[in-house]
Amino acid sequence: MTSSHYLGYNEVMAQTDDTGFNLTKATRIGRQVVKFGTIGVVLLMVGRISLQALTAYWIATHPPAPPPPEMGFGLLPAIDFPDEDELTLPKNYQLETETGTLPEFGDRAYVYFMPQKAASLLDADNAIQIARKYGFTNNPESIDPRTYRFRKQSPLQSVLELNIVNNNFVYKTDYLSRPELILDVEIPVEFEAVNQVKGFLNTTQLLPSDVATSSGKVKFLKAIAGELTEAVSPSDADFVQVDINRSPLEDKFSVFTADAETGSIHAILSGQGGNASIVHFEFQYFPIDYLTRSTYPLRSTTEAWQLLQSGEGYVARPASRNTDLAVIRKVALGYYESFIYQEYLQPIYIFFGDDDFVAYVPALTANSTESVQ
Q1: Which stretches of the chain are DSSP H helices?
Q2: Residue 157: exposed, middle, or buried by beta-carbon count in 10 A (0-12, 13-18, 19+)?
Q3: Cβ contacts of residue 277 below 8 Å, gap of 6+?
């Protein structure tokens, strides 16, 4: 066979290889499919992870607007602060917090329902049992349909005025006219004094659970000419004063009373032991239903500050120094508790200033409460 025949055969085979499907071509195509398929899978995975990350970032930086405050109790009664002495009110205010600015506390806060105990046929008997546990064995005097007055002469002349429906009471003695109470006595220290006060209430099962865990505040007092003044030191004291409010709500919002000092439980203790250890006691406590609450809108601290400056706040404690300028050092959110029954426990802004100055401004927006008459 001539060389021309061989050349013709090779050309034919080459053309067959180019146009036909063989193992080499199949392998090459398979490799391409695996290569681009792997790339595609990787791109899909990266794309999915990136999409999830972008979605999470968008949600974090653009959270959905929360639902509006519930206002489940409807319009609330405006907080009824006590009357103020106009002569003690500052004429000007100056803000000097650590940051030079006002803090913010969000756009809403809880309001709590305070149920009122209904009268029952057993109230009078229960009141007499409470009085007996405090040593009052004589029959009571009825001051009004809700209040009994008990008296006793020993160990101190004492009077107990007890609300027979809610069991709030005031216990008074003639301790300031008893010099023997301050002779050679040892005044209880802070922890011991607070525990004595709680024990006094526990004797009649009147110690509330939200007071049992509260730390309380202690002040040492000295008796001079029948008057009490703050003692220079515990060693110089004749009596110790204890004030206890309920524990902070949500573990961070403290409760404040009208003068920013007197607790709903207020007591004075002597250094005498036994029945003469408690010489004065005021229990003015109304329970809270912590499960019945609703969110209400908060006004901003900027608005509250403007209200205070315009004279629409309430000065709970004037500055100890007589001055027309109140310098505010701190602002907090808390709750106001009245010694007169209130149906709801409402939040307030508290402005703390120099020289023990304290003022309150209602924290809820104006459209949350009824107009003040």
Answers
A1: 3-19, 23-61, 123-133, 190-202, 209-212, 301-309
A2: middle
A3: 188, 196, 269, 270
Q: Which of 187, 277, 165, 284 shows the shortest CA–CA distance to 240?
A: 187
CA angle 282, 287, 289 (to 5 degrees): 170
Q: What pLDDT does 7 receive?
A: 47
Positions of E strands within the chain: 92-95, 108-113, 141-144, 147-152, 158-163, 169-173, 217-224, 227-230, 239-244, 255-256, 265-269, 278-283, 289-297, 314-317, 325-336, 344-353, 358-362
Q: Vertex 372, ends 370 and 373: CA angle to 5°?
A: 115
Nearest to 312, CA basis, from 273, 351, 361, 254: 361
Report the Cα 335 to chain-centroid distance in Å.
6
The answer to whether domain 86-113+290-368 has CATH 2.60.40 is no
Distance CA 127, CA 132 (A): 9
Contact 246, 255 (CB under 8 A): yes
Q: At a CB cut-off of 8 Å and minimum separation 6, what does 33 contact?
A: none
DSSP letter at 225 equals T
pLDDT, residue 159, reads: 98
Mapping DSSP to helix (H, G, I), strand (E, B) and coil, where does residue 137 land? coil
Short-list 180, 341, 209, 337, CA closest to 271: 180
Q: Which two tokens stand for residue 295?
A: 């969110």
- pLDDT the model gives residue 275: 74
Q: What is the DSSP letter of 364?
A: B
According to the model, what pLDDT value does residue 257 have? 98
Cis amide prior to 287 (ω within 30 degrees): no
pLDDT attached to residue 372: 58
N- to C-terminal Cα separation, the chain: 127
Which stretches of the chain score pLDDT less than 70?
1-21, 58, 372-373
pTM of the model: 0.83
Q: What is the predicted pLDDT for the residue at 148?
A: 98
